Amino acid sequence: MELKRISPEEARDLLESGEGYTYLDVRSVPEFEAGHAPGAKNIPLLHRTSFGMQPNQDFVAVCEKALGKDAKIITACMKGPRSMRAAQVLIENGFLAVVDMRGGFHGESDPMGNLVYPGWASRGLPVTTEAGEDESYEGLSKE
After folding, report:
1. How far apart are CA 9 and CA 125, in angstroms?
2. What residue spans of 26-136 are helical by DSSP H?
3. Angle 86-88-89 from CA coordinates, rounded to 5°
4. Distance (Å, rounded) from C-alpha 52 to C-alpha 22?
5. Distance between CA atoms of 118 and 79, rounded to whole angstroms?
6. Topology, domain 4-140
7. What are the pLDDT digits (tens) for 54-109?
8. What is the number of other CB atoms lying within 10 angstroms of the CB of residue 25?
9. Taking the complete model, does pTM exceed 0.90, yes or no?
10. How far apart are CA 38 and CA 40, in angstroms?
11. Burial of 22 (0-12, 13-18, 19+ CB in 10 A)
12. Which residue from 73, 77, 88, 126 has the least number of CB within 10 angstroms?
């Protein structure tokens, strides 16, 4: 299955469509806690450690338990590359309806750090720091 990429506005429209889409924020817990799309679920692809970013060995298992392989998922991260990788990992592991939001939460930048494709927050879409137990990684990863 080829990965479909959508704009933040298309992601918002899917989330509001009533079709059951889930915004899956694959950023680290601290990044998520600093601000995210309302209703987003946080399952990090990588964890921030004192040794840098390290793979979350439980990523696929927590996604399967919390969302299910038939869930309609929109992956998103900070700038785009992490969520593209997360989407590919999910598709490779049998998830059936995954799209990736281009630009992530803050937006894509060029090598000089200039914003070249605004993300969710950069486009003025809703942002919150609130998260229920069914949205936080701590809650989603419980046995």
Report:
1. 8
2. 29-33, 59-66, 81-92
3. 65
4. 28
5. 9
6. Oxidized Rhodanese; domain 1 (3.40.250)
7. 999 999 999 999 999 999 999 999 999 999 999 999 999 999 999 999 999 999 99
8. 30
9. yes
10. 6
11. buried
12. 126
